[in-house]
Design a protein that fits this description.
The chain has about 750 residues and is mostly helical. Helix content is about 80%, strand content about 0%.
């Protein structure tokens, strides 16, 4: 039996490796986003700086595991078997939950997930113990609910405080430096750099280094007694140093951003390491105590020893640090999570992935009304002064940057200062929540949320905040369900759940890689948005439009062949698959249209006006063709699913001829798009008319047959009539699409058609 428990503990450590990987992939946004978004350095250099901070923070952590040891439950009332079940449930749930958020590109809090997983699993085990207990134990004896309450309060505090301060501080910073900040650095950069560097050092002392090995009670006491002296000396020293560096031609803002990145990475590793390895280390300590003193009674041996202090070996910390560094450098999902925050705070328009929501639309409407009133009551001279200071046309950003270095510096410094201040005041501010909401506040102050993007970005912020609360709920319920299964299922269920978890992670990574490969085409979209030369926008956009429409035409041709062929063959599986693909394609078309519209705004005005009508007509035609296909698919699927009679053989030959001609038309259209040959468009349009006439003849013949009394299999013939009607409408739309595509490429096309 002891061997089986040892295997469980080993599994806990194996799961911890996966947890470190997926956890770092999500929490990396806390310290990477500002440096990546402002292009303070190359991505490789940013990773190197962050990796050094992560490794130092992990290796020098003292490994205090209070949350996992006794922060949520009272270990003196739980048996060794109870805690092993809780720990396994927590690790399994945490890995699945964080990987899900990583795949969605949503930042969340590892602290929230760990706390509520422990709380949920402990809650269920407590119910089991109370049901079979005669000693009168209650929840107050088994659970530490105060910790969960402090986390919930921390969510609200972090969201409100970080957003408000981010908006105010960035507003003041922009008033001082404006968007054309390089012309105003001569004497201001020293003071600004001194303030920023001092705040970073203060953050490291109060938050980042508070749990490191060299921070003995004596050192902590001396720092607390001399905080003002340390801060004052740092400010004077760093002010002089930054002014000197500026005089020597060094970009001080980049130095500040990299310092902030290092500080946040170090603090993350030093303080949040418990979220990943605390549970397996506590499991190991429990196992050692059980083997030494348990007497083989796993269900009866209580774990009061966990109330004592922990002693984490250095090699565990170093190993965890190495895993975190490797995960940080190799994780593709970390970049996706980072892109969510960067995209929501970008100074430029981009792909607004969250869409629109009613509450966001109302917030924007109220804000516009408020701003209109403010403009009315503000004197003209004041408005003119603010306009000069907040003129986004003067923005100075490196190529490909989402925002400038001023905002990147404020993001990092303010996040660190707020977290340090919250720690000193005993306020449970979450690192994830603070860094995200500061970034959103600074982007709002920088006028990044313009009328064209505000609704989408507010929807994104609401979605992310909602995801934080969802994390707590899913973590609580998921861990509770899993621990219930494990508690009654025993060791083999624990092993099975661990193996299932590993399988889920492997499958998730494969699907993510496949999706990332499919999304790689958006590189051209990002290139168009970043292009400063308007004359280059339209040629690039035409390439992008052609590629997107080529994909749709290929999809439409395949879908028509698959749906109609499956109807003739009575193949319900193919119909079901095709119907799901058609539903998804609507979102693909909407996303493409939104991206292409954003790009069109970047083009030369005369070109944009000339091509706009044909651009929109082409998109409308694609959407109309999709609706035709969906209507065909829906009625065919319903008919076949209900096991109604198939299409009679005497009608199949005529329909096969139509199917073949439609398939050939789609294939030839693809060749035309690939070859950029608008001269063949008139011939393709004539073929549309010819096939349409053929469909109409077949339709009328069938109609006459039905009217004359051919009532055999009347239900399937009605489906057939619908297919012919929708095919005819699709061919009419296809003809319009061909003209729109030709006009996009050649404005003189109408003269030759």
């Amino acid at each position: 039996m002891d061997i089986l428990f040892l295997c469980v503990v080993v599994f806990l450590f194996l799961l911890a490796v996966f947890d470190l990987s997926v956890g770092v992939s999500n929490d990396a946004v806390n310290f990477l986003n500002s440096a990546i978004g402002s292009k303070a350095a190359s991505f490789k250099r940013v990773l190197i700086v962050a990796s050094i901070g992560v490794f130092i923070g992990a290796a020098m952590s003292n490994g205090m595991m209070d949350i996992a040891r006794h922060g949520i439950f009272r270990p003196e009332h739980f048996s060794f078997y109870d805690l092993i079940c809780i720990f396994m449930a927590v690790m399994v749930t945490d890995i699945i939950l964080l990987d899900m958020f990583n795949s969605l590109g949503m930042p969340t809090s590892t602290t929230v997930s760990m706390v509520f997983e422990l709380l949920g699993a402990t809650f269920v085990v407590s119910l089991i113990k109370m049901a079979g207990d005669t000693t009168g134990l209650g929840f107050d004896d088994l659970l530490n609910t105060e910790k969960a309450l402090s986390v919930i309060i921390g969510i609200f505090l972090s969201v409100a405080i970080a957003f408000v301060f981010g908006t105010l501080v960035q507003f003041v910073s922009r008033m001082v430096f404006s968007f054309n900040y390089r012309s105003r650095l001569k004497w201001k950069i020293g003071i600004f750099g001194g303030l920023c560097a001092t705040a970073i050092i203060y953050f490291l002392l109060i938050k980042g280094a508070k749990d490191l090995t060299f921070m003995t009670p004596g050192v902590k006491g001396w720092i607390n007694e001399n905080t003002l002296l340390i801060v004052g000396c740092c400010f004077v020293g760093f002010t002089l140093l930054m002014q000197l560096l500026h005089a020597l031609g060094v970009n001080v803002l980049k130095v500040i951003v990299l310092m902030g990145t290092f500080a946040l990475a170090m603090a993350f590793a030093g303080n949040d390491l418990v979220n990943f390895i605390g549970v397996p280390l506590t499991g190991l300590a429990s196992y050692k105590d059980y083997v030494a003193n348990g007497g083989g009674d796993a269900s009866g041996f209580l774990m009061g020893s966990l109330n004592g202090p922990s002693d984490t070996p250095l090699y565990f910390l170093i190993g965890a640090g190495l895993i975190m560094v490797v995960s940080l450098a190799t994780s593709k999902k970390a970049r996706r999570v980072a892109q969510t925050e960067i995209g929501l705070g970008s100074q430029n328009v981009g792909d607004e992935m969250f869409g629109s929501s009613r509450i966001a639309r109302r917030v924007v409407r109220w804000s516009l009304s408020l701003m209109a009133w403010v403009r009315c009551v503000t004197p003209l001279r004041v408005r003119a002064w603010f306009h000069r200071r907040f003129n986004v046309d003067d923005t100075i950003m490196d190529q490909g940057a989402a925002f400038d270095l001023i905002r990147g510096s404020v993001n990092l410094v303010l996040a660190g200062a707020l977290i340090a201040l919250g720690t000193s005041l005993k306020l449970p501010l979450s690192t994830t929540f603070v860094t995200f909401m500061v970034a959103m506040g600074t982007s709002l102050a920088d006028r990044a949320w313009g009328r064209e993007s505000a609704v989408f970005r507010i929807t994104g912020v609401i979605s992310v905040i909602g995801g934080w609360f969802l994390t707590a709920g899913v973590a609580f319920i998921g861990a509770g369900v899993i621990v219930l299964v494990m508690h009654y299922g025993g060791h083999w269920v624990m092993f099975a759940m661990a193996l299932i978890t590993v399988g889920i992670i492997i499958r998730s990574n494969k699907r993510f890689r496949a999706k990332s490969k499919a999304d790689s085409g958006d590189t051209l979209f990002q290139t168009i948005l970043a292009t400063k030369d308007q004359s280059q926008v339209w040629p690039l956009l035409l390439m992008y439009i052609s590629d997107q429409q080529r994909r749709f035409i290929s999809f439409a041709g395949d879908s028509y062949s698959n749906v109609t062929g499956a109807f003739v063959r009575d193949d319900v599986k193919t119909l079901d698959k095709a119907d799901r693909a058609l539903i998804k394609q609507k979102d693909v078309l909407k996303s493409s249209r939104r991206k292409e519209t954003l790009c069109l705004r970047q083009a030369n005005r005369e070109v944009a006006i000339e091509k706009s009508a044909w651009f929109h007509l082409g998109n409308n035609c694609c959407m109309s063709i999709l609706y035709n296909l969906r209507r065909i698919s829906e009625i065919c699927k319903e008919h076949v699913e209900n096991n109604f009679l198939p299409l009679p053989t005497r009608y199949v030959a005529d329909f096969e001829s139509i199917r073949s001609k439609v398939a050939t038309l789609f294939n030839d259209t693809l060749k035309m798009i690939d070859g950029e040959q608008t001269d063949v468009v008139p011939a393709l349009r004539r073929r549309c008319e010819e096939i349409k006439d053929m469909v109409s003849d077949t339709y009328h013949q069938l109609h006459v047959q039905l009217r004359d009394g051919d009532a055999d299999a009347i239900s399937v013939l009605y489906v057939y009539l619908n297919m012919l009607q929708e095919t005819r409408e699709m061919l009419s739309t296809m003809r319009k699409y061909l003209r729109a595509y030709a006009k996009l490429r050649d404005s003189d096309f109408s003269g030759r058609s």
